[in-house]
Amino acid sequence: MPTQNSQPSKIRKNMIWLSLGLCAVGAILGALHMLPIDRVVEKEISAELVITGLPKGLTITPPAEKFVGARVKGPASLVDSLAAQQLTCTLNLAGSAPGLISFPLTAENFGLPETLHLSAIKPEMITLRINTSDRKKLPVYIAIAGKPAAGFKVIDSFALPGLVTVIGPENLLARMDRLMTKPITIDGIAESIKKETALDLPAGVRATGMEKAIVVDIRIAAKTDRRTFAGIRVIARGTDHATIFSPPEIVLEIEGPANTLAKLDRLADITVYVDLAGLKPGVYVKRASISLPLSITLVKAEPELFAVTLTKKEP
User: Fold this and answer.
1) Which pTM value belongs to this model?
2) Domains of the chain and CATH, by start
3) What angle do CA 85, 86, 90 make, to 5 degrees?
4) What does the DSSP assignment read for 23-81?
5) Is it the case that residue 273 has pLDDT exceeding 80?
C-alpha cells in the first residue's frame, strides 16, 4: 500500500524532467539562433554555349554568340559558388534538319539546381543555319605578311602537308579552291624559316585526318641583279715584251646578289688578263681570263678572243 509522501515524490520527479526538457529546448533554440541565415540574392552569370547532338551528315554555321548571360536568383551560398564553376549552356540539336532554325533558351539549358531560379536570359534565342555537310581535299597555300630585309626576297614556299581534307557546309566548300594558313610574318628577315602554324578556316569548316600542325617552309635568298660593265682594259701577264691588244677593252655582263653588285668596284674587283708566259714576239689570238668576286657569275663577255701583238722592248 503506498505511503502518504509517495505522491509529492512523483511530483518532484516530474518537475525535474520538465525543467530538463525546457533547458534542452532552450539550448536547441539558442543554437539555431546562432546559425547564419542563408539570404536570397540575385546575380549575373555567364555560361559557355555548347552545341551537341548534331545529326550525322549535317554541319552548322557557328552562331555569333559564344557565351550566354543570365540572371540567377537563390540562396547566397549557392549563387556565390557558381563563380568558381565552368558554367555551360547546352543546346541539343538532335533531330534537327537543314535550314535556318531558332532555339529558345530556358533554365533547362543551363542545368542548374532546382533551388536556383533564372529571371532573365540574354540572348533569349539562338539562331543557327544547319547545312548538309560535304568533304573536300584542297591544296594549302601559305599566307605571307611583310617583306624580308633589304636586298632579299622570297624564292620559294611550301607547306607540309600540301593537301588537307576539310568538312563543312556543302554550299561553302563548293566555292573553295584552296586553304590558307594563318599569316606568317617575315618582316626584316634575311634567312629561310621553317615553323608550325594553323589553317585559317572559315566558320563551320574543319580539317580532318590531321595528326600534326601545318609545317611551313619559306625560303629567303638575296636578290639577284645583272649589270653590264664596258671599257674594261685587258692586261698582259707573264711577259716582258711590249703588248698591243685588239680590241684593247672588253664588255662584261655579270650577275649576282644585288647588294654585292651595288658595291662592286670595277677597278679593284674585276680583272681581265691574258697569260703570255713563254711567248716570243709575234701575233697571237688568245682568250682572256676573267677574275670576279666569288658571289658574282659571268653571263657574257664580248669579245671572247683577242689579237695580241708582242714586240721586243727597245733597250
Assistant:
1) 0.56
2) 40-123 (2.170.120), 133-222 (2.170.120.40), 224-311 (2.170.120.30)
3) 125
4) HHHHHHHHHHHHSPP--EEEEEEEEEEEEE-PPTTEEEE--S-SEEEEEEEEEHHHHHH
5) yes
